[in-house]
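Continuing the batch. This is chain 6 of the set; chains 1 through 5 are on the previous pages. Same settings as before, nothing changed between runs. Recording input and output for traceability.
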Amino acid sequence: MLTPSAVAAGRLRISMPADFGRVLMEALTTRFSHSYPQLRLDVGLSDQPVELIREGFDAAIRVGHVDDTNLIAKPLGMLPMALVASPAYLASRGAPDTIASLSRHDHIRYLLRGRPFPISFANGERLVPQGVFDTDSGEAMRIAARNGLGIAQLLRASVMEDLAAGQLVSVLEKHPLPPVPVQVLHGFARAVPGRVSALFRFLDAEMPRWR
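Output for chain 6:
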């Protein structure tokens, strides 16, 4: 019987969002690479969807709801979101204490197909804030928030280190945001190659660390 590392060999090409990739990269280049030494990793970091099969990717990790696709989606779980800002921004503008007061603040907004992504709360309320910095990159949002440009809605996993270091602060915690789904997309309808099965096992084991 072959061990997992024996069947996981060759080139594994993965696409993932840049901010999530930054969270995952330490584990990917230590625990995963050391467990599967016969794999060669090819990692694309982009918040924009890729043409997975046409561009030759084995799998794509996606955060949030995905459009209908002919690809196979393996759910990985749900991850919490957070509203964050720098201490300097909050010192100059004050911390919002209601959803209404949140609308009067400067916001760092994520653009999805050119439109700002709304802030949706677990209680069903929804806000499309005014932006001072718009981008299609979660990593750019994190940097802008750290540098005091405004309030950003980000994956909590992507800002855990910034929160622990005091470089960012959670705001409006009494109005929680709903968690978002994370899934890995692939096109192997029948037999999943060993290299991709190894990735699935790794992601299933890592997900609890980010909740």
